[in-house]
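=== RUN LOG ===
request id: a7f3
mode: sequence -> structure
chains: 1
length: 136
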Amino acid sequence: MTLLFRLLVYCWVSPVTLLGGLLSMLAVLSGGRARLRHGVWETWGGWPGRLLESGLPFLGPVAAITLGHVVLGISEQAIHVTRVHERAHVRQYELWGLLFLLAYPLASVWAWAKGGHPYRDNPFEREARKADKEIR
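=== RESULT ===
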């Protein structure tokens, strides 16, 4: 991928990455840790980590969540275990940009309307689970 194209991809995703970056700063300021790994800012612990662990609406507790080029997790171990899955979501953000914030919940509603589970049957989640299985 050329440098110019990579830069355009980061710009396309930047509104969501900025939101993730803000949550990452809150995590670090509240005792969490962060690092840059292969172009993705990984953050764990702190206030956002405790929120993920206690549960998100409609999802319950989650180990990690992706916002653009930022992955927030409950612990460093959770970041490691979910890395392939969450990188699939990074690629989805790179494709959809800001629209992913609308496409993901609509895909959940569509899955539920067809009689499926809003999380397990969401095509974005199926794609991320498939990527994880292919690596393992």
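=== NOTES ===
The radius of gyration is 15 Å.
Helices lie at 3-29, 46-54, 76-96, 100-113, 123-135.
=== END ===
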